[in-house]
Amino acid sequence: MHKRIRRGLSALAIGVTAAIALAACASGGSSAGGSSSDIDSALAKGGTLTYWSWTPSAKAQVAAFEKQYPKVKVKIVNAGTGADQYTKLQNTIKAGSGAPDVAQIEYYAIPQFSLSESLLDLSSYGFNDLKSKFAASTWSSVTNGDKVYGLPQDSGPMALFYNKKVFDEHGIAVPKTWDEYVTAAEKLHSADPNAYIAADSGDAGFTTSMIAQAGGTPFTTKGDKVSINLADSGVQKWTKTWNQLVEKGLLSKTVGWTDDWYKQLGNGEIATLITGAWMPGNLEASVADASGNWRVAPMPTYDGSKAATANNGGSAEVVMKQTKNPALAAGFLKWLNSSKESTKVFMESGGFPSTTADLESSSFLNEEPSYFGGQKINEVLVDASKASDNDFTYLPYQVYANSVYADTVGQSYEKGTSLESGLKAWQDALVKYGKQQGFTVSTK
Fold first, then answer.
1. Percent of the chain at pLDDT exceeding 70
2. Element (H or E) spanning 331, and its range?
3. Rounded distance, CA 113 to CA 119, Å?
4. d(CA 212, CA 70)
5. Whole-number Å distance between alpha carbons of 20 and 27
6. What is the pTM of this model?
7. Cα–Cα nearest to 142, from 117, 118, 108
8. C-alpha to C-alpha distance for 138 and 149, rounded to whole angstroms
9. pLDDT, mean of residues 306-312
10. Local structure of residue 121 (DSSP, 8 states)
């Protein structure tokens, strides 16, 4: 599953322009080329691969792969989660050696690595033919035109996870609009000063997802030209709602993924989570005492009519250009993220699939986990996967952008002030960094 782990991001800065200059060195001996028949030959011949991943299902998936292809040995390395791994990965790119053959990379970070030409374009191996196997939103996250830089592992359509026991105790109806959500937050905190509708101390991924749901498109990129507008209409729509929660002290400042956070999710002091479809496994594993209390509902919208959501989190696997055996690496990746054998293992570990066959499976849709009171939560989550139509794009240096979020927008959360000033500071930092990296950066 895509287990979101709270990461204390340092001022991570992947030098994008420098990485482009070093692309030839980073590519090692491989280059674009090959075919699907080359994959078959490579799997039959065998060899050794290195796979960097933090997903809990990696060990079981590799074991199943090696059983099917006994001549191939895959060494799993957990080089850290998210930004921790990206720093190490970037070091191998700069050094021109040491990169794994296959690596797990979150969707938001793919543009940064593809821009530096550090990823193998898999289109020549027939990967474009796999498009129909995946949800449209995740497929768009791993492609650029006809180029295919990886295959989706999981997806994170957002939904409203709520504590039904807490809602029932305080007579709170499940909010269908964001205005109703704010009203619920006020009612809950007024009745119990220790209880909050949600915890949000400032998170870059959550912010970009909420902006996307509101229709915002603050980042656009065309070649080396970047446009940043963290005050567009979608951003303003989101801040108009979220400012009410921040400025009135209606959000818990408990940091996510900490012991206190789990405790408060369990005892009802945090009543909702607006997050990705990968969350159920985390609740079941880490908030076991609240079994039976939680439910899932569609994400609130601004007008309460047409369903609208966004993606939050999720990863793909890619083949690094440094690989000395691109056909074998491509074959492993193809099996890993598109074969029934592998996706079954992934889902058994609690992962939320990106493959359409699994999303449409009756057995998956009809699951009734007791943790969620027997609710068919996957029906809600799969519907959410079909309700994200904003073509949101990330910056080609989004890893850096996320690393400086706490020092900018995070300060608005800390001080309980409007988010606009924090977003302006974030934009200024992103414009400055982009220009330093050689991009032509404009603001609207």
1. 93
2. helix 326-338
3. 7
4. 44
5. 11
6. 0.90
7. 108
8. 12
9. 93
10. -
